[in-house]
Amino acid sequence: MNSYKNLGLGLILVLSVMLTAAPSEAAGKYKRKYGMAGCGVSTYVIKEDGKSEQIISWFINGVAGYFVSFAHPTWAMTSGTSNCVDDSQQVAMEQEVFMNSNLANLSKEAAAGQGAHLNALAEVLGCENKEEFSRFSQQNYPQLFETSSAKEVLSRYLNGIKSSEELRKSCERVS
After folding, report:
1. Do 50 and 24 contact (CB within 8 A), yes or no?
2. 133 - beta bridge partners?
């Protein structure tokens, strides 16, 4: 019964702070994928960075972490779930998912040197010069798509971009 009393007092405190909190201004040029409350399951629901939203986010993360083992903050941070990854990991995951989902179409379009999926891959890799990227894909098609493994094709693209002086300058999401 005492824990319910503490929970009730905590809810009253959170609600009173929420009602008096003013939204915060965006800080600086760079914006995190999550607010001051940190990463966690709440980042999938709460997108705003105002004080009241972050208090709610903190509360959701705490409750979820207490009752649901996979949502525990320490587990979420070390496993890469709940938006608890650094930017380079996030980019690598996006690229891998894109390649897995579009490999067949990319193979056809790379051979032709043009297409919507090929342009989308250029964007996923951060390549501004799509014409050069398409030319690179067509010229290196036999080496890039020698295998049917999406992971290997992505790796070959990344290595090829790093080897090309022109693409290395143009593609900013290649590490």
Report:
1. yes
2. none
Pair 39, 82: CB distance under 8 Å: yes
How high does pLDDT run on average in the chain? 76
The yes-or-no verdict on residue 86 having pLDDT over 80 is no
Q: Tell me how many degrees the CA angle 53-41-174 measures, rounded to the nearest 5.
A: 105
Query: pTM here?
Result: 0.56
Question: In Å, what is the CA distance from 48 to each residue of 32, 33, 57?
Answer: 11, 10, 10
Hey, what are 16's tokens?
A: 């009173």
| pLDDT score of 175 more than 70 | yes
Contact 52, 2 (CB under 8 A): no
CA 18/CA 120 separation, integer angstroms: 42
Q: Where exactly are the structural domains of the chain?
A: 2-24+32-79, 87-170
Chain position carrying tokens 């964007």: 123
